[in-house]
């Protein structure tokens, strides 16, 4: 089974000022966001990624470009509109502090599967399209490069959270329990029986074990021996 590194874009000017950017054009990484993307690119540099797929929005393509530039080879890169940000409709461009006073806000927090943003899309629809895109790319990567291949998908916080919720078998109403920070790396393998979530929301740690680890589709009874016999090279589950 192939393995996907789910990367959220680095911090943007909108993130720093508390704006819900949504699909607004021209929202770029700020200085800290560029540093975060560089750090993530350096972490992934030891992993021979066979493909990098990104949301078409600038903050994601900037982050993806940084990752590609630090690869020893030149993995093909592309954008996929199905990985773009949620369409927040009339909420787009507004301050989060103002949105928190809306009647819809507590529904977003506790019952997201019922949310349809005014003039935008539903969170359930967002999850369906993004999960379908990830699984489609993952199947194509495995068919072309074999079950040990690793690839990268660069997207947005709510997108990555919804993909992780699906991989973890969580109802969408629980996805707000997940945290996905700027430029974080989460790791998922899709097997014939079930997905396996290796890590979520990591912002540090060695990823070179992905180059040599043997990933089986079966879960090890008792927990298994991990990916490295010497030292702690496995990713941490951060919440």
List the helices and strands and how they pair.
Blueprint: E1 3-8, H1 13-17, H2 31-44, E2 49-54, H3 58-69, E3 77-79, H4 96-99, H5 105-110, H6 123-145, E4 150-155, H7 157-167, E5 185-190, E6 195-202
Parallel strand pairs: 1-4, 2-3, 2-4
Antiparallel strand pairs: 1-5, 5-6
Helix pairs in contact: 2-3, 6-7
- In total, the number of strands is 6
Strand order of the largest sheet: 3-2-4-1-5-6
Number of helix segments?
Answer: 7
Coarse shape: globular
Report on this structure.
- This protein has about 240 residues and is α/β, with parallel strands linked by helices.
- About 30% of the residues lie in helices and about 15% in strands.
- A six-stranded mixed beta sheet has the order 3-2-4-1-5-6, with helices on both faces.
- Strand 5 (about 185-190) and strand 6 form a beta hairpin.
Which terms would index this structure?
239 residues, alpha/beta, six-stranded mixed sheet, 6 strands, disordered C terminus
